[in-house]
Design goal:
mainly alpha; three-stranded mixed beta sheet; disordered C terminus; 18 helices; 459 residues; disordered N terminus
């Protein structure tokens, strides 16, 4: 009623109140729907120049790849943003998910002929499982490896934890690179990778390599599922336990939070998102190559989480979309435009880490909490620093404001006494003297009575 009356007075249409926790999901759904309608209806009907602009600056393949980055960055946000565990080897889970798709959706294991609701031809050799089942298998497989990798790091913190996770992140891609001859068995096909993988099937419809609009819908759905899981876990008991460990691990353990189980849960849940991203990426590029899973991907994912805002799902999503677009399309196209206009020959994509590093430095100086920070992180990072005036005495005075009130009252009494007339001062002195004399007499009588009573008791 109040909003309707206010709208009537201002002459504006009434606005339906939208709960705060629903605004970002609705915005994500609206943006996804807008992109789908734009590429399905609008872009094909544009003139050639308009289509060329979209193909140059915002190709749908780059949008799909950016969504894969979003899925993986959300998984890393669970480990780093929620639980506060610095992970520099998250690319390992991306690689495990990708190779799970390569093993279960291709003819790599030609010794076996297994088909399960797949879009591959019935005469194709190898293992061919439906894409949606491979998603589940890849997530479960990566969760298992998340527990295996996370178990040795439970006693480690800070830099030591980062170094161990970095080691795992380097070991697993090297295993895939050299896994073409493990005791005479070809597990990963070495540096040649596993190509091609089966296409995505939805019911009886198979998505070809140029069905990018429908792949966009699939990746949007996967990202939405990961977002939903992240948000629900954040509000649940497990999410609060992660935040407690992030803020103070010792205090969390003293309050009854099981550190080992909670940390392993963070690694496992984050690894599930990495596995989903790996499976989606394998279908996006049509295969799995070991050189796609290098250390730079882990650093880029960490930059997405930090830039967007650690602990905030929507901030991490925004950071992943922005950095993925810059890395795949924005920086190369801006470089081409500058080279054409200025007649230079600069390889701008080779400076992507220089650009990311500069952006991170500026963010750490001017906005450490990220673009869309979590409320708790924002309060902690914007807390004013201690100054020289905030010494122990100042802290004690702030802790006992009644001391300031007593001192102010005493100063007021002294000032009133100094400003009082002389006669009043004499009368006040006399009254004080009489009060002191009376008090002394009473004290003397009390002392004598006390001594007499004590003597009687002695006799």
């Amino acid at each position: 009623m109040a909003s309707a009356k206010t709208s009537a007075r201002t002459g504006r249409l009434p606005v339906l109140p939208v709960p705060h926790h629903v605004r970002w999901p609705l915005g994500y759904a609206a943006a996804a729907l807008l992109v789908f309608l734009a590429y399905y209806y609008m872009v094909p009907s544009l003139p050639e120049q308009g289509q060329q602009f979209f193909q140059t600056w915002l190709p749908l393949s780059s949008v799909n790849e950016a969504l894969v980055w979003v899925i993986c960055a959300l998984g890393l946000n669970i480990v780093v943003g929620y639980a506060g565990l610095l992970d520099l080897g998250f690319v390992a889970f991306w690689a495990l998910g990708g190779y799970t798709a390569g093993w279960l959706m291709s003819g790599h294991f030609y010794q076996v002929n297994l088909h399960f609701l797949s879009g591959a031809q019935s005469s194709a050799v190898g293992v061919h499982v439906n894409f949606w089942f491979v998603l589940l298998i890849g997530g479960a497989f990566c969760a298992l490896w998340g527990v295996i990798i996370g178990a040795p790091t439970l006693r480690l913190k800070s830099d030591y934890l980062a170094l161990v996770t970095l080691g795992f992140g380097e070991i697993i891609p090297q295993v895939f690179t050299n896994g073409d001859d493990i005791g005479g068995f070809n597990l990963t096909n070495g540096a040649r990778g596993i190509t091609p993988v089966d296409p995505i099937t939805i019911g009886g419809f198979t998505l070809g390599p140029f069905d990018l609009v429908y792949k966009f819908v699939v990746f949007v759905v996967i990202a939405a599922v990961v977002m939903f899981i992240s948000l629900r876990l954040r509000e649940g008991r497990l999410g609060r336990a992660w935040l407690a460990i992030r803020e103070d691990e010792l205090a969390a353990s003293m309050m009854g939070v099981p550190l080992m189980r909670t940390k392993l849960a963070a690694y496992a849940v984050g690894a599930v998102a990495g596995g989903l991203a790996g499976v989606a990426f394998a279908t996006h590029v049509g295969g799995v190559l070991p050189d796609r899973f290098n250390f730079s991907i882990s650093i880029t994912l960490l930059a997405m989480v930090v830039l967007g805002g650690m602990g905030n799902v929507w901030g991490v999503t925004l950071g992943a979309l922005v950095l993925a677009w810059i890395n795949s399309t924005g920086l190369p196209q801006m470089g081409n435009t500058i080279n054409e206009n200025l007649g230079t020959d600069i390889n701008f994509p080779s400076y992507n880490f220089l650009l990311f590093g500069g952006i991170l430095v500026l963010m750490m100086i001017y906005r450490r909490e990220g673009i869309l920070p979590e409320a708790r992180t924002k309060l902690v990072l914007r807390e004013p620093s201690r100054t020289e005036r905030e010494a122990l005495g100042a802290d004690m005075e702030e802790a006992a404001p009644e001391l300031d009130e007593a001192l102010e009252a005493e100063d007021a009494e002294l000032e009133a006494a100094a400003n009082a007339p002389a006669a009043d001062v004499v009368v006040a002195d006399a009254m004080v003297a009489d009060a002191v004399a009376a008090t002394g007499a009473e004290g003397t009588e009390g002392t004598e009575d006390g001594l007499g009573e004590k003597a009687g008791n002695t006799i």
